[in-house]
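Hi P.,

Sorry for the delay on this. The queue was packed all week, but I finally got your sequence through. Input first:
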Amino acid sequence: MHAHHHAHDHAGEGAGVRFRAAFRWGIGLNAAYVVVEAGVGIAVGSLGLVADAGHNASDVLALAVAWLGASLATRAPDERFTYGLKRSPVLASLLNALLLFAAMGVVSWEAFGRLLHPAPVSGDAVIWVALGGLLVNGGTALLFARGRDDLNVRGAFLHMVADAAVTLAVLLAGVGIVLTGATWLDPAVTLVVVAVVLWSTWSLFAEALRRSLDAVPAGLRAADIREELRRLPGVEDVHDLHVWGYGSSEIALTAHLTTREPPQRPNTLLADASRIIDERFGIRHCTLQVECGEPVDPCGLRPSTTV
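Then the structure:
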């Protein structure tokens, strides 16, 4: 007997719809700030401002990619894409992480160059522009704060938090330059922030990579799920257990439950298994199959009987 259980979440319509305004405001505000920050940075000779402008420019693109991925995920399944395009946010998150790594590489290269060859910097201009950037980046991050359970929205949130951190560092460097005249603070603080940004981005990259390769999502262990299913009355073994993330937050599961005798109430067994998977592991999309016979290796020579 086969059973398919899918508990639908009617609380929202997907990140592409729920965060449509957040994406629009985030893209618009950050694009405008990039123009201002880059112009002032070039005018006053601040590597921190120019580097931060480049980082912000990459995040404007990242927000656009995230929005596109979230929007594609709302496309209904069809005969060609039976899951719809729910993996789009995962690919968008992976691309966003790679963009951020690339942006930080460029920033680091420029910062090392400026450490070796210091240049005069207007601390006052750096402070005022960085204050504006802190408001823009921090405000944009707050727009996505409520959607951090969604991998794609979390990517957008982390980008904005990273932007705010870089801008705060630039602000502190500007204050230090005004107080001490030490222009080396500009690239030095930039390198510290780059390290922090790379560290915070790694978890996003790793999770997006795992999901793109159909790995068991972070926080779940297939062994724990198998053990819970084995505790069900009448279940002798569990095999062909597969757990994977097929979207930015959705998780699917398939498994075969082996029993020695045909269960008297197979629907009850399947319902209990689905409930446990949902309640204890948060997996709402599962397909289960009950097999009768000896609990043997499914690849062995002694077949079981499917009921």
